Amino acid sequence: MNAPAPLAAMTAIPPERLPPLAAGAPDISAIEQAAERIRGEAVQTPLLEVPAANAILGGRLLIKAEMLQRTGSFKFRGAYNSVAALAPEVRARGVVTYSSGNHAQGLAAAAQAMGVPALIVMPEDAPAIKVENTRGYGAEVVFYDRYTESREEIGERLAAERGGTIIRPYDEPNVIAGQGTIGLEIAMQAAARGVKLDAVLVPAGGGGLVAGVSTAIAARSPGTPVFCCEPAGFDDTTRSLAAADWIENDPAARSFCDALLASTPGRITFTINARRLAGGLVVTDAEVADAMRFAFRHFKIVVEPGGAVGLAAVLTGKVDIAGRAIAVVCSGGNVDPALFRDVLAGA
Predict the structure, then answer these.
(1) Of 133, 166, 199, which marks where a domain is finished?
(2) Residue 196: partners with Cβ closer than 8 Å, 6 or more residues away
(3) How far apart are CA 69 and CA 73, in angstroms?
(4) Which of 17, 21, 8 is nearest to 242 (CA)?
(5) Is 64 noted as a catalytic residue in this protein?
(6) What CATH number does residue 319 fall under?
(7) What is the tens place of the pLDDT at every residue in 287-345?
(8) Where a domain ends, among 119, 140, 166?
(9) Structural domain of residue 103, as residue ranges?
């Protein structure tokens, strides 16, 4: 009997080179508390499986469909958990964040649900649908140039002026814990089907989603490797894992995966991911477009570019699914209609 092909290239940081775990990094108990806070507010999204897709791939592909979450992406989970965790008197003064769009929408919706004001700093080139939706949830939007201005500095200044609390998009313990509820659900949903997962693939920008998911999977599905997935040019977590240190992206890099364009891993998130991740998988924009078309054709779902990187890694063989069961987080579906039309047309 032939031995199975290797799953994927692994990157394990030797224990002596691990960065110290950041103060406040959430553990499984924090993720379980987050699950209680968001219960009844966030959607428990399905873990989708299509026999025709499995037949093509030669293995079991299970997609965690976070485009079906409130606001169209996973970000509502961490945002709601963070706002709900604030003391009432602090919450009443409002919340502030900076985001390319999905965290913006998630925080705006969470703030609206709890009746508190939200101010969002967004890049001028954010997808129109994300800007419109953020405003639709009642948030005030302030624009900045992502290539010449610091969103963090603008956010800090506005928070000081308004007296609001900054809820960072990924480097925030309660945000990470909220995103980790996806990992709890994946483990539970797979177990309910009698599926032993061979790997979990998760998109990474600043690393909050994969930090939370990997923490939950380590507790609920021990031994299942978790990989971060990134667009070429913005593979800072993958390269940071290889270097055992924070590595920045080239400022000249460009990608249409607008949700994943963080310049470097988060200070908290990387200390978690350095311990939890089996490695990183990198895909091109063209491969992501192919994955978006595959998801639409076979799963009948709309996946935005940043949400499709994990699926792209499977389809291109960067992780070997043959004879295996792999869960992929498709993190959102907030893509401009014109761009999605062009992707479907193969433009």
Answers:
(1) 166
(2) 190, 325
(3) 5
(4) 17
(5) no
(6) 3.40.50.1100
(7) 999 999 999 999 999 999 999 999 999 999 999 999 999 999 999 999 999 999 999 99
(8) 166
(9) 75-166
Amino acid at 267: R
How far apart CA 307 and CA 311 sit, in angstroms, is: 8
Can you tell me whether residue 235 is helix, strand or coil? Answer: coil
Catalytic residue among 64, 75, 130, 318: 75
Going by C-alpha positions, the residue among 341, 251, 332 that lies closest to residue 289 is 341
Pairing of strands 47-48, 60-65: antiparallel
Question: In this structure, are residues 102 and 257 in contact, taking their beta carbons and an 8 Å threshold?
Answer: no
Query: Please, are residues 280 and 319 in contact by the beta-carbon 8 Å criterion?
Result: no
Q: What is the mean pLDDT of the chain?
A: 95
Whether the CB-CB separation of 257 and 282 falls below 8 Å is answered with no
Q: Map residue 53 onto helix, strand or coil.
A: helix
Residue 59 DSSP symbol: S
E strands in 232-340: 279-283, 325-330
> Is residue 215, in this structure, part of any structural domain at all?
yes
**Count of other CB atoms within 10 angstroms of residue 299:** 19
Question: What's the pTM?
Answer: 0.94
In this structure, the answer to whether residues 69 and 107 fall within a common structural domain is: no
Q: Identify the CA nearest to 248 among candidates 262, 259, 260, 231.
A: 262
DSSP 3-state of 40:
coil
Which parts of 89-171 are beta strand (E)? 95-98, 118-123, 140-144, 165-166
Tell me how far apart the alpha carbons of residues 220 and 65 are, in angstroms, rounded to a whole number: 20
Both 152 and 189 in one domain: the answer is no
Instruction: Please indicate whether residue 75 is annotated as part of the active site.
Output: yes
Tokens of 286: 């063209």
Would you state the structure tokens that stand for residue 148, as one six-digit string?
A: 């010449």
Crossing angle of helices 337-344/285-294, nearest 10°? 90
Is residue 47 classed as helix, strand or coil in its secondary structure?
strand
Look at residue 6 and tell me whether its pLDDT is greater than 90. Answer: no
Catalytic entry in 73, 100, 214, 331? 331
The residue written with tokens 């997935």 in the block is 229
Closest CA to 183 of 327, 67, 299, 42: 327
The secondary element (H helix, E strand) that includes residue 228 is strand 226-231
